[in-house]
Amino acid sequence: EDVKKFLHYNANKALQNLGYEGLFPPAVCEVNPAILAALALDVAERFEVPRDRIFAAGLSAGGAMAAILGTERPEVFSAVAVHSGLPAGAATDVATAFAAMRSGAAGRKPLKARTIILHGTADATVARANGEAVLEAAPNTRAARDATRGGRVGVESTPGQGARFWVRLPRLAA
Questions:
Q1: Nearest Cα to 35, choosing from 79, 63, 78, 65?
Q2: What pTM does this model have?
């Protein structure tokens, strides 16, 4: 059944990429992350890819899927790249996904795999608040915060002018 949903999802995406409506309703197109994890493991085994070299990357909806894989399958994907995607847990259906894309994600789950985040400051499709939410959910951010003993890690960005990542360290008592 999960394989059928994966096939329906890909058929819809192929049609949509050509400018046509998808044939299958969203309810039969929900891809279980276990399917992608199993496919990745199978390919890795066939081509002798070391387990610590299995990665997932995606753009937009694919970025959201990479975030989900980094959250739910870190034992398979040692790192993920999220480009202009929603954080894991931000949406439960198409309507909530579009709402989160426009205004930023409300709910999110912590990522467990190493993560790199790319998000344009002038992105008019996926609100940059989503990139910031992925950053907050990433283990590297939490590790940096822990390493700074209560400091803060963040990003400030201005559309069309780039972004600045920062670490704020607390003052230590003398």
A1: 65
A2: 0.75
CB atoms near residue 130 (< 10 Å):
28
Reduced to 3 states, what is the DSSP secondary structure of residue 23?
Answer: coil
Provide the b/e sequence for 32-62 (b: ≥16 CB within 10 Å).
ebeebbeebbeeeeeeeeeeeebbbbbebbb
Q: What is the pLDDT of residues 139-170, one digit of tens each?
A: 777 666 665 566 666 777 777 777 676 666 66
Place of tokens 């008019």: 124
pLDDT tens by residue, 119-137: 877 788 998 889 888 888 8
